[in-house]
Amino acid sequence: MRKTAVVRARVEPDLKERAESVFARVGLGPTQAITLFYKQVELRDGLPFDVVVPKPTTRRAFEDSEAGCDLVICEDANGMFQKLLVSDVHPRMHEAVREGYQAVCPTRQEYGEI
Predict the structure, then answer these.
(1) pLDDT at residue 75 tops 60
(2) Is the four-CA dihedral 18, 23, 29, 32 of positive or negative sign?
(3) Residues 25, 30, 34, 35, CA torsion sign
(4) What is the pTM of this model?
(5) Which residue in 31, 28, 27 sits closest to 4, CA to CA?
(6) What are the φ and ψ backbone dihedral angles of 76, each rounded to 5 degrees?
(7) Which of 15, 39, 81, 87 has the highest count of CB atoms within 10 angstroms of its CB?
(8) CA 82 to CA 16: how far, in whole Å?
(9) pLDDT at 70
(10) H-run or E-run covering 30
(11) CB-based contact 37:48 (threshold 8 Å)
């Protein structure tokens, strides 16, 4: 089938640039990426990803993070886990960190909502 339909959209220039940079890294041009998106919508009969409205707590965390507030900066994963040790986390997580992170991540049923 010939490609004759035109799709036009206005987006923020920075968003366009960042997205097209990702497309280029995976070998796609903007037209190919949009076609891929449309094909996935058609195949799934819906959006190819979940669309959710963040809860107020999550929204505040996003806003704080974007503003640079209350960030915990770690040099690497070990530093992050060491900082977790001093926070109020479940005792099994403390044990897992002390044992070299060998424990499997607990389920939400075990610890409740995270």
Answers:
(1) yes
(2) negative
(3) negative
(4) 0.50
(5) 31
(6) -160, 180
(7) 81
(8) 38
(9) 76
(10) helix 30-44
(11) yes
